């Protein structure tokens, strides 16, 4: 079994451990003006958290790619998410900024050395493709906002066992959609498909999808929505001949209640686990190694 398959399956327990760190020093206090930064997957988790924090009334929260952080803008706290702790853009940023809290998997690396650091070493990964570290960082941040992660972890246990809603032989393309905090999850799901499998996957805010991207919807293509969906979207997608996937929609996770014992729809972060599993299947069905994607390394270190 590949590393990434094991790491995907370990997420429920990782999320529970991350939630236990919700009172760690350095996490943003209510009312602080906060920026959250990362690269790639970590940036998408930053976007999800920023939306959740503002929705919870904890204060203005911006998310940036580390390379695009606006110089001169003032924040009470910067949260940097970096699995390796060695990514060049993150290190360049935290060297010139103050009041930085680093969430990382390796406390021995440079990003954690001169900053407040929260180390999720239990969520570190051998696979180049990130899964459990990123979601554990988001679990930590959601718990710090006061969310109960126990039912979310329970949903994750369901997601690990669900039949997959996408089959590689029947789908040539997937578009992931989200609203609010789940836009970041949609972007992360699409990235997993591109990274692991070199697969054509895109992501958009659900309300913006009908303003252009729906033009590529067609038979043998899939539109997969996380969380709340706009009225009429499923019908519009299905009218194109594309398949619509959603944890509460009859055309996607059909008979979800029979899998979950009548439970409510999956938490969107648990739904992301299903998308991660699909990405791995898309890779292995082509004979690709999802642990070692083409052209990628664990950390981007620039000369």
Major sheet: size, sense and barrel closure? 5 strands, parallel
Strand order of the biggest β-sheet = 2-1-3-4-5
Say how many strands there are.
9
Radius of gyration: 19 Å
Number of helices: 11
- What are the low-pLDDT stretches, counting only 5+ consecutive residues below 50? 254-262
GO biological process, one term: carbohydrate derivative metabolic process
InterPro entries: GlmS/AgaS_SIS (IPR035466), GlmS/FrlB_SIS (IPR035490), SIS_dom_sf (IPR046348)
Keywords: Isomerase
GO molecular function: carbohydrate derivative binding; isomerase activity
Describe it.
By secondary structure, the protein is an alpha/beta fold. It folds into 2 domains: 3-147, Glucose-6-phosphate isomerase like protein, domain 1 (Rossmann fold), CATH 3.40.50; 162-284, Glucose-6-phosphate isomerase like protein, domain 1 (Rossmann fold, 3-Layer(aba) Sandwich). The protein has helices at 3-9, 11-19, 41-55, 88-96, 110-113, 132-144, 150-161, 182-197, 233-238, 256-260, 268-284, and strands at 34-38, 61-65, 77-82, 100-104, 116-119, 173-178, 201-205, 221-225, 243-245. The strands form 2 sheets. It has a 5-stranded parallel sheet. Strands 7-6-8-9 form a 4-stranded parallel sheet. Helix 2 packs antiparallel against helix 7 (150-161), helix 3 (41-55) packs antiparallel against helix 8 and helix 7 (150-161) packs parallel to helix 11 (268-284). The chain is globular. The model is unreliable at 254-262 (pLDDT under 50).
